[in-house]
Amino acid sequence: MQYSDYFTGRNWTTMPVDDNNNADPDLLAEEKALERAGRLHWFHWLVLAFSLVLTLSVWQYSSRQLQEKMDNRFTQQGEQIAALVKERLQKYEDALWSGVAAIHSHGGDISFADWQTFAEALHIGEKYPGINGIGVIHQVAPQQRQQYLALQRTERPDFQIHPSHDQNVLLPISYIIPVKGNAAAVGLDVAHENNRLTAALKSRDSATAQITGPIILVQDSQKKPGFLFYAPYYSGPATSVEERREAFSGLVYAPFVVEKLMRGTLQKSRRNIHFRILDQQQTLYDESADSENKSYQPRLSGRHTLSLYGRDWVLETWESKAFWADFSESQPQLILICGIVLDIMLLSLFLLLSRAQRRSLSFAKRMVARATKRTDELRDTVKLLERSNQELEQFAFIASHDLQEPLRSVSNFSGMLKESLADNEKEHVRSAVFFISEATNRMQNLLTGLMDYSRISQEIEWESIDCDDVVDGVLADLSELIREKNAKVVVSPLPVIVAGRSQLRQLFQNLIANALKFSREDSTCKIEIAAKQSSSNWTFSIRDNGIGISPENFERIFFIFRRLHRNEEIPGSGIGLSSCRKITTLFGGDIWLDSTVGEGSCFYFTIPKAINKGA
Question: Where does this one sit in the cell (predicted)?
Fold first, then answer.
C-alpha cells in the first residue's frame, strides 16, 4: 500500500505489522473495515429516508391538525350564531306570552291605555334589542266591523282598518307600543297579505307562536326584509282545532326588521365570521353586502338549518379576515422547511463524517509509515538503554562491593591506632582517630545500602506470598529494636498476594524500621499494620505515632540520599524510602504518605491484584 508522507511529501509503502514486523491479518481486516466505514452505506440512506418520511408525516399531521382546528372553530362559531338567534327569538316569544297573560288578566280583552302600561313596563328598548314594538291584533267578524271601529275611536278618533280585501275575516292591528315609529301599522289588517295571514291562522290553529314569511313592514321606510311574530289568545277552552277556531280572539304580535334584529342579537365584536339568513331562497339578512366584505374571497363556508316557529331559516356562514388572526398557517410550512433543512444538514453531516473518516485513515496510515520507519531505531535505542542500565547497576554493585575492602582496612587500622594511643596523647589526635572511625562506618553503611538498592532491579521471582509470614519475619529481625523502643506493634490480618518475596520483605522492613527509628521519646511507640482491598489493588498501611513529617517534605524523602535529620541525630543512609518507591514501582503500584508533625505518619503502598508475571 503506497501513500505520501503528510509532512515530507515522500511516498511510503507499508501495511499493518505486529511486534515481529510480520503482516497482521487482524490489523489488515480492521484497516479494510475502516475503509468501508468511510463510505455511505444503506443504513445512512435509510436514516435519511426515515427522517424525510417523518418530516412529511409531521407536516401532514400539523396541516390536518390546523385544518381541524380551523374547521372546529368555524363550525363552533356558526353553531353559536344559530344558538344565539334561537335564544333571542325564545326571549321574544316569552315577551309575547307575557302579553297574552296580561290580556287574560284583564278578562280576555285589554284597553289601549292598559296595553300601553303593560308594554312600557317591559322596557322593550333595553331588554329586547332589535324588536320594533309589541302590539295586539283582534279578530273582527265582518258584521262586527262598525262596532269594533266605534270602540277603538273612543280613544283614537282617526282609527281606520286598512287596506280593504276580500277575506272573510278581519285581523286589524289594534295597538302597538311604542306608537312612535309604528303609526303606519295601527289599523293594518294582516289578513290582506298571504304571509301575514298564513302565519296568523297557523298560530290560531296550533296555539303556538309562529313567525311569518319574509315581508316588508309598512313602518319601515328603508324597505328591509322583516317578519311578524305571533302568539294567539283565546276566550275559552282551546284543546282542539275546532275549539281554537271557535274561541280565537286575537294575537299578541311583534314586528321585526331582520337587519335590526341581527344587530341587536349578534354584534360583530363578539365573532369573526360573517353570515346570511335565507327563508325559502329569499334573503332576510346578508353581511356580504357590507363594503368591507365585498372584496374578500372566503375559504371556509358553512350551512345551518334553523326550524323556528313554523319557518325553516338557512344560516350560511363564511370566515372574516379577523378569523385567521388566531391561526398560524405558516406553522406546517415552517415544519416542512425545517425538516427538509435538517435532512440536508444530516446528509451533509454524513458526507463530512465520511470524508473525515477517510482523511483520518489516510493520516493514520501516513503516521504509521513514519512510525514504522523509526521503530527499528527506537528498538535499538531501547536495547542500548537496557544494556547501559544493566552495566550501571553492575557498576554500582561492583563499586559498592569492591569499596568495602579498603574501607574495612581503614576501619581496622583506625581501630588499631586508637588502641595504641596512650592516654597521655594529645586530645585532638584521639578526636581525629575517632572521626576517621565514625566516617568509615557511615561509608560502609552507605555502600551496603547502595548494594541493596542495586539488587532491587534484578529480575523478580513472582510467587504467592502470605504477607502475615513476611511481617512476622521482619518483626523477628527487628525484635531487639522493638524491645529497645518498648514499641507496641498491632498487625491486622494481611492477605496472600503475588509479588517478589525478597523485595516485599525489604519494603516492609524499611517502613517498619523507619517507624521505630523516628518514634517520639515522650510517648510509647505504637505501630499499626493493615491492608484493605479495592477492585484492582491491595492497599497496605503502616501507621505510627512518631515525630511526623511536614507536608513540604512528603516528596523529598523518596529521593535517594535525601535525609531530613543529621546522622548524629538519627542515623541512616537516606536510601530506605527511595528503595521502597523503587520496589512498589516494580510491582506496578504506588507509595505515598499522610503525616502531621508531632503526631505521627502513615505510609501507604499499593500492589495490583493482577500482576503481569512476565514483567
Answer: Membrane
